[in-house]
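Incident log, structure service

09:12 report received: a user says their structure output differs between two submissions of the same chain.
09:20 pulled the input from the user's history:
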Amino acid sequence: MDLSLRYGEGSVVFPVPEENILGILEPNPCPVPQFAEAFSEAWRRPIGFEAPLHELIGKGGRVVFVVPDHTRRVPTREILRAAWERLSPAVSPRDVTVVVATGTHRPSRPDELAWILGDFRRLFRVVVHDAEGDLVRVGTSSLGTPIEVNPVVLEADHIITIGHIGMHYFAGYSGGPKMILPGVAGAETTRRNHERITDPKAYACVYEENPIHREMREAAELVGVRAMVDAVISGDGRPVKFFVGKVSEAHRAGASFWDRIFQVEVPERADLVITSPGGYPRDIDLYQAHKAVFNAARATRDGGLILLVAECRDGIGHPVFADWGKRAHDLRGILEIMRAEGFRIGGHKAYFFALDRERGIRHLLLSSLPPEEARALGIEPVSSVEEALGLARAAFGASFSVLIMPHGNDTFPRIIGGSPSPDGR
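09:34 re-ran on a clean worker, output below:
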């Protein structure tokens, strides 16, 4: 059977013997509505409000849109256009600022801002967040973390976040309050938040009891977010449903909807899982592409293989991830670094790779990353999918089983009758 996986802005085509294929894991079927129709429906009936946002905001006042950066595959300019059509009769462009929520990522480049915002980068004032720049403390979370954020966000009379709702492997879900923390938060705030990854409840698709997501919700409340406009997006990048309204209510509704579409049952774990994040920008670097590895590990047997097909045009993607990943390949070593140096943003990726290795999983990588860089992280580079299939055959015999995950970032396997997750969380 010839199969194809997204790779950068192209694809990789490869054959797999049909008798070895345990399954091709895709999100559950869901109709994709027309963009305008879906957006209008969500805007007319905002969750938690009695009237559409343009009626609530009224005339005048300063508006800040907090939008995703270059690492997120969100139709931001289309969402902005639809929202602005409804707000523009009452709001002047000179009173609108767009803050690009880079979190702790590198700044978005001019070409990336053009891709994110289109003509809005000239219509509105645009600020790219700097987690190490000027910050304002707005309070302290119930867990004791000082919440510091970009002061430009606080200039607004109305803060509207734009994002997408999906699984996040330790924050529970993306979108909603995550656009504030870590989106426009200070690096130390984010570090304190993320260091709770060792808590068993800091796990994908855990909402109320997740300490990391709980703190994100508190940060959004402290900042005073007026409303969120989030999309649940299909694997090919099209919105399947919009959620507009109060963050506290609309985001929960969106997360529940995401679960119904993207949590996929699997009869058993496979010897080899082949996955792609879904192409650019989700595979822009190894740091971002890891989300597909996290999901694939849920469907991989102990001692099995994961092949990540990801271009990684920007390399590893985070200096701390690279540093920790090169200094320690096993969980004991990563935890020793954390104890000695404290948690640092980026180190969490090395931590999750190490969790997989505790189960004996081998990570394979088909990418543009130099082979020596992959090996330094404890990852085995391969030159083709066929090479990975050969490694599986050598390890497990001719009848080895393969699962394919074409949209690894958006496919959350659940083993039928199995434990919540392979590591017991």
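09:41 both user submissions now match this output. Likely a transient worker issue. Closing.
09:42 reviewer note: The CA atoms of residues 105 and 318 lie 8 Å apart. The first strand starts at residue 2 and ends at 7.
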